[in-house]
Amino acid sequence: MLFFELLHYAGAGAAAVYSIDLVKTRMQNQRGSLAGEIMYRNSFHCFAKVVRGEGFFGLYRGLLPQLMGVSPEKAIKLAANFTMRDLLTSKDGNLPLWKECIAGGSGGACQVIFTNPLEIVKIRLQVAGEMTEGTRTGAIGVIKELGFSGLYKGASACFLRDIPFSAIYFPVYAHMKTYLADEDGYNGAVSLVGAAMIAGVPAAGLLTPADVIKTRLQVKARSGQQTYNGLIDCAKKIYKNEGAKAFWKGAGDLLHTLV
Fold it and tell me: Which residues lie below 8 Å from residue 216, measured CB to CB, with a gap of 6+?
């Protein structure tokens, strides 16, 4: 029952933080370092500019595909983690930390099969509002344009983000849940939310560079924008043209979204 309750709340949570996620994506995709190339000064400016130029609902562009995909995505990750934890637990009930990390990382790896297509469609819709020329397309148009193989563009960066994220998140969450439980071992809503927030901070914060690279690889570059040929090429060009600081674009927004 708890498993299905978590999936239910995952959809509600995704909708609640979606506007922050859109701002995060646009900040990460900002490819210039010169004043004339910068569209948004910071996250607050981005938020205000979207509302002013695209209306309030512009903050929720691409929400429907996200809502359709978030529950299956979480189901795959949770099921894989729970299954691996059971398999790696010894007969005396012992599960070392390194095995917890393997179980969590396995969940992250499995979810990429479903996450990457969802992410690339969502991200392309999120930045579509920046277009000043041409026709803005919807989710079906993005899928038709990409084709099946195109839906897995940037998958290497997705693996780079999701495997370490889950390897950090699930063990920290499990230990914090135990730590925050009451004397009878019971966790109320407050302790569960607290454990999730504590686990999310290091998991999301440390993986921001991988998320920036994934965003750059999955967004369709506009005319005149820097293009990238794979994960390594993307990382090198970001560092060369924008400096190390660019790898942390949208870090605060990412923490709010994932925590």
Answer: 28, 29, 31, 228, 234, 238
